[in-house]
């Protein structure tokens, strides 16, 4: 409980809502620290609450991290933070690259549509 408290509290604003699985440590933390809490219980086939609360993003990120880190055949806890920062850097670059490609495609489409109007 103390480790969760030390890790999370400094990152939360007053109106934060914690979305988590049904683990008891989160329940205890949110009730002790007066933090809003939405529980997504996958074992009960709950995946979305109120149409907006879900764990899809974090589950997807975790999946990408596990796949990437598995190539190292184990990581020393001494260097784990460095591996996590490295992964985050690469993951952010990929997202930026994907976004850049989408912007380029959109710009090209606008250019092409504008060109069609000019010749019609």
Please sum up the structure shown.
This protein has helices spanning 2-8, 24-33, 56-69, 80-119; strands at residues 17-20, 36-39, 48-49, 53-54.
Q: What does it look like?
A:
The protein has four helices and four strands, in the order H-E-H-E-E-E-H-H. The chain is mainly alpha-helical and 120 residues long. The strands form two sheets. A two-stranded parallel sheet has the order 1-2. It has a two-stranded antiparallel sheet with strand order 3-4. The longest helix has 40 residues.
Molecular shape: extended
Low-confidence stretches: none
* Amount of helix: 55-70%
Helix/sheet category: mainly alpha
Strand order of the largest sheet: 1-2
Secondary-structure element string: HEHEEEHH
Rg from C-alpha positions?
21 Å
Number of strands: 4
Report the biggest beta sheet as strand number plus sense, adding barrel if it closes: 2 strands, parallel
Please report which band the strand proportion falls in: under 5%, 5-15%, 15-25%, 25-35%, 35-45% or over 45%: 5-15%
What is the distance, rounded to the nearest whole angstrom, between the alpha carbons of the first and last residues?
68 Å
What's the topology here?
Blueprint lengths: L1 H7 L8 E4 L3 H10 L2 E4 L8 E2 L3 E2 L1 H14 L10 H40 L1
Parallel strand pairs: 1-2
Antiparallel strand pairs: 3-4
Please give a handful of descriptors for the protein shown:
120 residues; mainly alpha; two-stranded parallel sheet; two-stranded antiparallel sheet; 4 helices; 4 strands; extended
């Amino acid at each position: 409980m103390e480790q969760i408290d030390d890790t999370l509290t400094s990152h939360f604003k007053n109106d934060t809502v914690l979305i988590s699985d049904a683990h008891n440590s989160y329940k205890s933390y949110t009730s002790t620290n007066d933090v809003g809490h939405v529980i997504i219980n996958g074992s009960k086939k709950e995946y979305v609450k109120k149409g907006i609360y879900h764990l899809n993003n974090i589950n997807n990120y975790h999946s990408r991290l596990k796949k990437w880190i598995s190539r190292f055949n184990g990581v020393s806890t001494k260097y784990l933070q460095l591996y996590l920062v490295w992964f985050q850097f690469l993951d952010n670059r990929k997202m930026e690259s994907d976004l850049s490609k989408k912007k380029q495609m959109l710009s090209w489409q606008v250019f092409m549509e504008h060109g069609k109007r000019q010749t019609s």
